[in-house]
Design goal:
- The protein contains nine helices and 19 strands.
- It is an alpha+beta fold.
Amino acid sequence: MLQFSKYQGLGNDFLIVEGRQGQLPVAVSDPDADWVRRICDRRFGVGGDGLILALPPQGDGDLRMRIMNADGSEAEMCGNGIRCLARYLADTDGDGPGRVWAIETLAGVIRPELMADGQLKVDMGAPFLTPETIPTTLMVDDGLPKGVLMLEGAQLDVAAVGMGNPHVVVPVDDLATIPFDAWGAALEVHPAFPAKTNVHFLQVHDRSHLEVRVWERGAGPTLACGTGACATLVAAVLLNLSDDSAEVMLPGGPLQISWSNRQGSVLMTGPAEAVFDGVLTPELSPGGTASTALQAITSQPEAPSRDEQPFDCASACSEQCQRPDQCLRDEAQQRVQAFLNNTSLDSMLNLASESLEQRTRARFENGGL
């Protein structure tokens, strides 16, 4: 059965599925949007703002992250998501403070670091500040794409920043009085943002304290957005509204964001926590059948070494099998079929429960960091 872990960063919550050894079937490693929407549904599924897949690296990274929004679309990157993934890796592999991971994303290689207090500091890379790289049709003025957009009779001053994914920042006088849902939904799909955009409404309390409400592309209102907090700080600095380091208060809590000397990487520091581990029922698994669900591993694998480059059957064999004499998929299916034939449902559930207990015990033995 397909195991997952639920993690949250400032209330932005994700389902994480382990697949670093290339053991996931294509239905999971390259998921159908309908399935993602179903498991992220808070009433009919597990519930979450997105799905994170931990996959074998395609380059020199330690692993590759795919992140799917709750609507089934794929995101280039997610700041809260990558902190959650790093926290999961530390919990699973027993890593301590000082561990840095090189995680491949669609926005490039991102490097989170586990700090002594259990928080994660992430080098988010340099912001994108040209229209074609965000992308946006807004024109650059004083180093920042910005302009005025008309929205339901309102005239909004906006600025666009890319953090590997697109963001629009809208300074306002009072977050409590804006038509948040209407403006957020309209700006997400505004023609000025051809790839759609994440939307952030910004209230400046002082130059080191910013408050933001988030409308995420593909998810709607969320409690936090890490890349959005970074984009907001960059825009606020270039608009002369903020110092180059500030606390960004989101509905789910604060992130510390810094962008030294208006150049180089943006650094984000914040928490991520485990919520629970679980097993998808056959009905919630891809295809909705037990046989499909059990193509995934029934226990957590040992983490690959940093030098090991596991064979990723899901991507390498997308056109045809590359190892017909040593087909990992055929072997796995045979083992799964034998498992199904010889194991009762109660025994399957007991195996899953024991695996989850082992992970939880290891997490606490590691000091809960």
